[in-house]
Design goal:
Elements lengths: L1 E2 L2 E2 L7 E5 L8 H13 L4 E6 L2 H4 L22 H8 L6 H10 L3 E6 L2 H9 L5 E3 L7 H8 L5 E4 L5 H13 L5 E6 L14 H9 L2 E6 L5 H8 L4 E5 L17 H18 L19 E4 L14 E4 L10 H4 L3 E2 L14 E2 L6
Parallel strand pairs: 3-4, 3-10, 4-5, 6-7, 7-8, 8-9, 9-10
Antiparallel strand pairs: 1-2, 11-12, 13-14
Helix pairs in contact: 1-4, 6-7, 9-10
Length: about 350
């Protein structure tokens, strides 16, 4: 799969997405600063969310329209007011995209309804993401797939059957390039609730590449996911968590994102292939294995015993496995302590002297 000219797959280092979400705190200047910081931190893409409060929910106080879970970051907030605060004004999209382009960084978005897709098409975004909460909105998936652009689909909360239905819907509607994202839809998520072992299973089950939309703190889970084959990592991104904002508490700061770039690339590089025996880089180290050496001066005709043979470093003598064969043989010439034992030094134990 490609986004623009960038290939996404096992042969490439993980593709990193910095999710701006509502961390612009309703300031275009801050949004542009986030783009700059993401580029400087090693992000391959900055991602937006395209909606308005009216396209997301109703402006009512009825049950269900107010977040009542006391564990939620947004407990007590009306959905409508939360989305008003968090949304990215549509007139900001073009300057944000242009700033990202100036950094040779991709910029695309999660649309939340068909009007958002139509709008994003006027900006010629290079890809789309379906958010976890929209994975069951099959009409939206069809709309996005019909653009022919690469699609990322986040799978938080989704059953295997729901993911299968979404994947089949996308493919039937024209999607040819698809990456699924393992995701845990809690904010923040915890490592023990992330289950990244699902990643290789998901790849096999649905026949496409898989990445991780990571809401945990730090980069450990993303590194583990990379080791399990994740080809793409998405993290919420902010300038400073202390600045506040709807998503700031579980977002990465620039220095942390730089660490994410470094450590996921190291994890990817470490995968290599199934390999036994010394690598080219290891071959010089073979010299520091143990081997058999004469440990005291011996004369021609002397018998090799445990008193004058030792298994020590370096590794230029016979291998340790030959110790029992060597013992009892006689030496065919005078040798000094520190001489590696080789077959050419030995005379059979029963040979005539």
């Amino acid at each position: 799969m490609k986004i623009g000219s960038r290939t996404i797959g096992a042969s490439q280092r993980p593709y990193l997405i910095a999710e701006m979400s509502g961390n612009h705190n309703q300031s275009l200047d801050r949004a542009l600063e986030l783009v700059d910081a993401a580029a400087q931190s090693g992000a391959d893409a900055i991602k937006l969310q395209t909606y308005t409060a009216d396209t997301m929910t109703l402006d009512v106080d009825m049950p269900g329209f107010v977040i009542t879970d006391p564990k939620s970051l947004w407990a007590g907030r009306r959905l409508y007011e939360l989305y008003q605060e968090a949304h990215t004004p549509w007139e900001w999209h073009l300057p944000i995209i242009e700033r990202a382009s100036a950094h040779q960084m991709h910029c695309f978005s999660s649309p939340f309804d068909s009007t958002a897709v139509d709008f994003l098409e006027t900006l010629d975004v290079p890809a789309y993401k379906i958010a976890s909460f929209e994975l069951t909105d099959l009409a939206l998936i069809r709309k996005v797939a019909s653009t022919g652009k690469p699609m990322l689909m986040s799978t938080g909360m989704a059953t295997a059957a729901e993911i299968d239905q979404a994947v089949r819907t996308a493919r039937a509607a024209g999607c040819k390039d698809l990456v699924l994202l393992k995701c845990t839809s809690t904010y923040p998520a915890t490592a023990d609730n992330t289950h990244v072992l699902t990643i290789p299973h998901m790849r096999q089950l649905f026949g496409c590449e898989v990445g991780l939309s990571d809401h945990t703190m730090g980069c450990g889970v993303s590194v583990a996911a990379t080791a399990l084959g994740a080809v793409l990592i998405e993290k919420h991104f902010t300038l400073r968590r202390a600045d506040g904002g709807v998503d700031s508490s579980f977002s990465m700061e620039p220095a942390e994102f730089k660490t994410l770039r470094l450590e996921t690339e190291r994890a990817w590089q470490s995968l290599g292939c199934i390999s036994y025996g010394p690598t080219e880089a290891e071959k010089p180290s073979l010299a520091f294995r143990r081997s058999l050496y004469v440990s005291h001066d011996v004369k021609a005709g002397d018998t090799l015993t445990r008193a004058n043979v030792r298994c020590v470093r370096p590794g230029y003598g016979l291998a340790p496995e030959h110790l029992d064969v060597v013992l009892g043989h006689t030496i065919c010439k005078d040798v000094a302590a520190g001489t590696p034992i080789s077959w050419s030094l030995l005379r059979p134990a029963n040979a005539n002297t």
